[in-house]
Amino acid sequence: MIQVPRDDRSVIGQWWWTVDRWSLGAILAIMAFGVMLTLAASPPAAERIGADSFIFAKRQFMFLPLALLVMLGISLASPRHVRRLALVVFCGSIVLLAATFVIGIEIKGARRWISVPGLSSVQPSEFVKPSLAVISAWLLAQSRTERRAPGYLMSTVLVGGVLALLVMQPDLGMSVVVASVWAVQLFVVGLPMWVAGFGAVAGAAGMVGAYFLFSHVRSRFDRFLDPTSGDNYQVNTSLEAFMNGSLFGRGPGEGTVKAQLPDAHTDFVMAVAGEEFGLVVCLMILALFAFVTLRSMSRASKETSLFITLAATGLAVQFGLQAAINMASTIQLIPAKGMTLPFISYGGSSALAMAICVGMLLSLTREHAGLREAV
């Protein structure tokens, strides 16, 4: 057990006594489940493409330690440094996001990835999410504290621009996450009810428009509402995995459905957890995500700095919402959506982007973070 004296005034000492150690422990537990499930789910996926059985596991184990270092390093930062980092990450990821239309690789009809030698591919939108949440929080806080600051307008322009790029890819799932995080921040900052009502109507109109404009969105909604209207192979196979696993699972390595699920190591990794480790372990994973999200929002609500409250709330909602979308689509509570489960699904971009998100969250929810804010 780590022993750090309370009077230790070093950077590490101050960090240890101010960081939310309960949330940190929960995040490390999620990463541990990620290691276990990567080993369980990735070999069949590798064998299907004729590669070494553990090639996906080896790649993921290269990224997870790096993600852990990034997360811990950012959690040491002050709120001002978090804001500056968010600006740098946002500018870089926006450039890459726009570049996907020129040099991006197309997968299943969408251009969301850029091929990077030695790193497979990078999904820039993963890095846009956490950085935009922090920048939007700063703009909204500035507009609230300094009445003449055009924070609301600038925040709207930034979010609108990002949503436009995401819809053009198209990536409707990521668009929903970005819009939802911004909506929560607007709610927390205290916009008039008529603005909230207008936003709700606009969001509903956007979903209806997506249904009629994008054939893959229409297909997924139709198959969700009427499973007999199309191919539901992955969802049906996922549900079969949960039924096979029952309460305590078949045991590590004993699952068979993962050999039939094309995305068992990414979008449907929870199906592997359900079959091999059972409902009990799935509920433990769900509880860990819920704990980090709710505890972070609770700590954010007690902050005296509006910027910290808005930024931490946005990051916490993003973390929890992405996990909820992944798990809900796995058990057909919502239409199928390709979205990774943070720190558990295979994916280097996702792991590093989520490390930035959680590192910022841990930094902003440190005790007396408001006193460390240099405005």
UniProtKB/TrEMBL annotation:
The keyword Membrane applies. It is a multi-pass membrane protein. It is an enzyme of class 2 (transferase). It comes from the Bacteria. The chain crosses the membrane at residues 22-41, 61-79, 85-105, 194-214, 277-294, 306-331, 343-364. It is found in: Membrane. Its main location: membrane. It catalyses: [GlcNAc-(1->4)-Mur2Ac(oyl-L-Ala-gamma-D-Glu-L-Lys-D-Ala-D-Ala)](n)-di-trans,octa-cis-undecaprenyl diphosphate + beta-D-GlcNAc-(1->4)-Mur2Ac(oyl-L-Ala-gamma-D-Glu-L-Lys-D-Ala-D-Ala)-di-trans,octa-cis-undecaprenyl diphosphate = [GlcNAc-(1->4)-Mur2Ac(oyl-L-Ala-gamma-D-Glu-L-Lys-D-Ala-D-Ala)](n+1)-di-trans,octa-cis-undecaprenyl diphosphate + di-trans,octa-cis-undecaprenyl diphosphate + H(+). InterPro entries: FtsW/RodA. Keywords: Cell shape, Glycosyltransferase, Membrane, Peptidoglycan synthesis, Transferase, Transmembrane, Transmembrane helix. It holds the Pfam family FTSW_RODA_SPOVE. Its EC number is 2.4.99.28. PANTHER family: CELL CYCLE PROTEIN, PEPTIDOGLYCAN GLYCOSYLTRANSFERASE FTSW-RELATED. Belongs to the SEDS family. FtsW subfamily. This is Probable peptidoglycan glycosyltransferase FtsW.
